[in-house]
Design brief:
heterodimer, A: about 100 residues, mainly alpha, 5 helices, B: about 475 residues, alpha/beta, 6-stranded parallel beta sheet, elongated
Chain lengths: ~100, ~475
């Protein structure tokens, strides 16, 4: 139980950080924000890797479930970051466009 | 429990912390388009650190794992490259469902093999009580995210009608299910597989039931809400695994989605509860349909529209979901360029809930190469309509309806709207006079003396205007 309090502290403080950081995001970038938060929430792959690489004592099923989760999270990580990058690359300023012409 | 923390090397904990900080920087970068790409790179580095650290600690080089990452990553990358920008809402909903399902799989795996996750209690006889509760919550939120996102995806993708599906007594069913899940999570200390399965099934059911009654207009809220859930699921699993990176990320994503839901609700002047309760768009459509009498309106042609805009000094373009549906953004940008060549000032006005997800219109305009400093948010541009010569409304309706300001009986009353009716001339591109927006409310702007209705498919109309301008 004693590990819970430090974890809870981190969690609560991170919620506050998230609150302030997200309010500073410009509304024009709300769609990329959703795409990138989706990508980073796939950090759950850490848990999937633990399950998939468990060598000892565990059940076979647990390992395969972990592998399945690795696949799903990887779709999200690569897909999420790539689509965010693609979107962000589209946002251009007036000046730069004038030069290109 | 303390044992586990003691055996975790300090550098591992630090690496996860660094990953968490990099994720914060990724979001921080989005405060401006200039810093956003650097931010995204921080996010990728953070993810790389988290994955590599885990692999080093738990055994590197397992070919199966590399294969799994390659398969998943390849699929994800190809989807990300190919997806049309208009389909972003369903892509994001689909991705959310994967996070939810991954959370469920990880929780089940941890339940079956607690030793690998280091969540056994002091005498290693059973899973520690606190871990069980965290796990129960994680699997519940993950399952809700999964089934809810699947429904949202099907609705956004058009595989399922956008109209709300209303079950009788749905509020009672939902509330009892929710209470049931909480009771099950609390009782999960007993740790029987049946209880665990019951949590998963009940959560899948409530995710499904929560989203089916929500109509198309409320989709921006739903997508944001599911975004938030996927974060809370990751955080709960982070508690189970005692992993800082997961806890920090979960909290970030959770609050991000919650804030976006709040912004969307506020932009529609609706309470979060009423959106979740669902049903918006269904009943109102019937009422609006009956009220819509055949009132006189002026119909214009592409030629007329081109003439009016060519002779204007300033034009404000108001795009909505209809523009996205007909893929008119590229033609629209061309129109803007032609007008600018004539010396007309062109700006774009975006309502927060235009489209099917937050910021949807901005991405579409950016895709069509509209410079982002010509695109303005509601509060920044609303004062300018009174001075504008032309408001060019394309595929937007409810967000321009003055009834929101004047008619207390209107379902959209109180919603902040773009004041297009104040412009000298309003050009309103709409497919036909019937079917007025998602809310099904008739718009008095159609019948004003200074409004010209351009009845056609948005893209075809804009292309015709471009021909006359060119």
């Amino acid at each position: 139980m004693e590990h819970l309090i430090p974890q809870l502290s981190i969690f609560v403080l991170a919620c506050f950080v998230g609150y302030y950081v997200v309010w500073s995001v410009t509304p024009a970038l709300h769609t990329p924000l959703m795409a990138v938060t989706n990508a980073i929430s796939s950090v759950i792959i850490v848990g999937a890797l633990v399950a998939a690489s468990a060598a000892t004592g565990g059940s076979e099923i647990s390992k395969w479930l972990g592998l399945g989760a690795v696949v799903l999270a990887s779709v999200n990580i690569f897909g999420g970051f790539a689509v965010t990058q693609r979107m962000l690359g589209m946002y251009k300023k007036k000046e730069r466009k004038a030069e290109a012409k | 429990m303390t044992e586990v923390i003691a055996t975790t090397p300090a550098w591992v904990a630090l690496a996860y912390l660094v990953a968490g900080v990099l994720f914060i920087l990724a979001l921080r970068g989005l405060s401006s388009p200039e810093t956003s790409q650097q931010g995204n790179r921080y996010g990728m580095i953070g993810m790389l650190i988290a994955v590599v650290t885990t692999l080093i600690v738990h055994g590197v080089g397992l070919p199966l794992i590399v294969g799994a990452v390659a398969v998943g990553g390849g699929i994800g990358y190809v989807i990300a490259r190919r997806i049309a920008m208009t389909d972003m809402p369903q892509l994001v909903a689909g991705f959310h469902s994967l996070v939810g399902l991954a959370a469920v799989l990880v929780a089940v795996a941890a339940y079956l093999n607690p030793a690998a996750f280091g969540i056994l209690n002091a005498d290693a006889s059973d899973i520690a009580t606190s871990s069980k509760i965290e796990m129960g919550l994680g699997v519940a939120i993950g399952a809700i995210t999964f089934s809810g996102s699947i429904i949202a995806f099907l609705k956004l993708n058009g595989n399922m009608g956008g109209a709300p599906i209303l079950l009788p007594a749905r509020h009672i069913i939902n509330i009892s299910l929710l209470i049931g899940i909480l009771v099950l999570v609390a009782a999960f200390q007993l740790s029987t597989p049946a209880l665990f399965a019951a949590i998963v099934i009940a959560s899948l059911a409530i995710g499904f039931l929560l989203i089916i009654p929500i109509g198309g207009a409320d989709m921006p809220v739903v997508v944001s809400m599911l975004n938030s859930y996927s974060g809370w699921a990751a955080a709960a699993m982070g508690f189970t695994l005692q992993n800082t990176a997961m806890i920090v990320t979960g909290a970030l994503v959770g609050s991000s989605g919650a804030i976006l839901s709040y912004i969307m609700c506020k932009a529609m002047n609706r309470s979060f509860i009423s959106v979740i309760a669902g049903g918006f768009g269904g009943d109102a459509a019937v009422a609006g349909g009956a009220a819509a009498e055949a009132r006189p309106y002026k119909r214009g042609s592409a030629e007329d529209a081109a003439f009016v805009m060519k002779n204007a000094e300033s034009v404000i373009i108001v795009p909505g979901y209809g523009m996205a549906v007909s893929q008119a953004q590229h033609a629209l940008r061309e129109m803007g360029d032609l007008l600018k060549k004539e010396g007309v000032s062109v700006k774009y006005a975006i309502h927060p809930v235009a489209g099917r997800m937050p910021g949807h219109m901005n991405v579409l305009l950016a895709e069509a190469n509209v410079p982002y400093d010509e695109v303005f948010e509601l509060e920044d541009i609303n004062g300018e309509f009174a001075q504008a010569d032309v408001a060019f409304v394309i595929g937007a309706n409810d967000v321009t309806n003055p009834a929101a300001k004047t008619d207390k009986t209107s379902p959209i009353y109180g919603m902040p709207i773009l004041d297009v009716e104040k412009a000298k001339t309003v050009l309103f591109v709409k497919r036909s006079m019937g079917g007025a927006g998602y809310a099904g409310v008739d718009n008095s702007v159609f019948y004003m003396d200074n409004t010209m209705m351009l009845l056609a498919d948005a893209k075809k109309m804009v292309e015709a205007i471009n021909k006359d301008l060119g």
